[in-house]
Design a protein that fits this description.
Length: 73
């Protein structure tokens, strides 16, 4: 549900081709470290208009998408 937005933000943040961002892509595969993750989440919050408080480990783009969906009820 949020995959396209997540992929767009990752592409903008890392400079990678948006087509390279797949649901199974891990953040480390995309060159995103822990500091980048924090900044990525802030960008996503601005983009989708909700606060994202990670309270579990997310390793892939799909994990993050599902996490955000679960917080939306």
């Amino acid at each position: 549900m949020y995959f396209n937005t997540i992929a767009k933000v990752i592409s903008e943040r890392t400079g990678c081709d948006i087509a390279a961002v797949k649901p199974e892509s891990t953040f480390s595969d995309l060159g995103i470290d822990s500091l980048d993750t924090v900044e990525l989440l802030m960008d996503l919050e601005d983009e989708i208009g909700i606060e994202i408080e990670l309270d579990q480990k997310v390793e892939t783009v799909d994990d993050l998408d599902k996490f955000i969906q679960s917080k939306q009820g």
